[in-house]
Amino acid sequence: MPRPIHATISVSALSHNLDVVRRRLDQAAQAVAGRAPSIWAVIKANAYGHGIDAALAGFSAAQGLAMLDLAEAVRCREAGWGGPILLLEGFFQPADLELVDRYHLTTTVHTREQLDMLAQARLSRRVDIMLKLNSGMNRLGFAPDAYSSAYTRAKQLREQGVLGSIGKMMHFACADGPQGVAGPLQVFESVTQGLGSGPISVCNSAATLRYPEIAVTRGDEAHWVRPGICLYGASPFEDQSAEALGLLPAMSLRSEIIGIQDLSVGDEIGYGATFRADRPMRIGVVACGYADGYPRHAGTGTPIVVGGARTRLVGRVSMDMLAVDLTSVPAVGVGTPVSLWGQDGPSVDEVAQAAGTIGYELLCALAPRVPVKRTS
Description:
Strand order of the largest sheet: 2-3-4-5-6-7-8-9
EC number: 5.1.1.1
Distance between the termini: 25 Å
Order of helices and strands: EHEHHEHEHEHEHEHEHEEEEEEEEEHHE
Number of strands: 18
Binding site for substrate: 139, 319
Number of domains: 2
Oligomer: single chain
Family: Belongs to the alanine racemase family.
Active site: 44 (proton acceptor), 271 (proton acceptor)
CATH superfamily of the largest domain: Alanine racemase
Structural class: alpha/beta
Strand content: 15-25%
Low-confidence stretches: none
Helix content: 25-40%
Mean pLDDT: 96
Largest sheet: 8 strands, parallel, barrel
Pathway: Amino-acid biosynthesis; D-alanine biosynthesis; D-alanine from L-alanine: step 1/1
């Protein structure tokens, strides 16, 4: 019999979360008598650890998909996805353009070198691009004073039959915090004004949920939003939970109690003896550790649910096991189910906060050795 740990991916939760985003965008559009934007469902990093196949099923109502990996894009096409696919980091070598061409992918362009590769490519059809602006985050994108010339170069390539549509995009660094979006948005609007029509994409999860009105289409240009983490049932905000946003967890990580220890005052737990009992305690050992993707840096007090009762992790997480406090749940024994995070446990954001990280990391870090069950 295999170890009892497993993850469950709910396709219906993925679909529900996409619908939450869609309703928020529709409400924003109605408020200003505009048109709601289209949605690129972001499925990078193996759909944030949830699996490409589950994402294709859960996000079938999205207008497009966005990702980083060319192999994942090819997989989506070969699985039957016929809508737009956006490569968020674009292509990296001239040879990549053969796949961009064959599978009709839309590519982000953020460097002069990518424009050079497009100019030299032999393509069977025009390539649609999103020309990215660095509006202050200083990761990818053309600087504001270089964007206009890059756009002019792109238009020349369009006139030569290389490019199709030329969209404009950027990324917000602080849409989830008090700094907000006003500054970068002003830079984007100032730099792109008058450059010509084409798709526009500026909103990630945080901006889509908190500032949906900026993505509403009021003229002829098509707007696209790029929600990611919220589609998987985690919150992009520190001050607002996924539950408060109406989102459902799509991934649930579960295991069982595989051992029980009774401790006396002064007894220690785990590697490094980082926890010492200050009273008689009953401790459960769970078949889950950092080799399964649970964060090693999660400390005593991290929430966990055992047999439906909320309790806490104690001591140091090891490779294959962790310990939980069962003192307040005496009926629990070997074989009792444990929820590490998800539908019937703490939220992944709660676990992440206790471990000093973010839910994104935990979802993406689910280890290949953990069996995954997909439910409708």
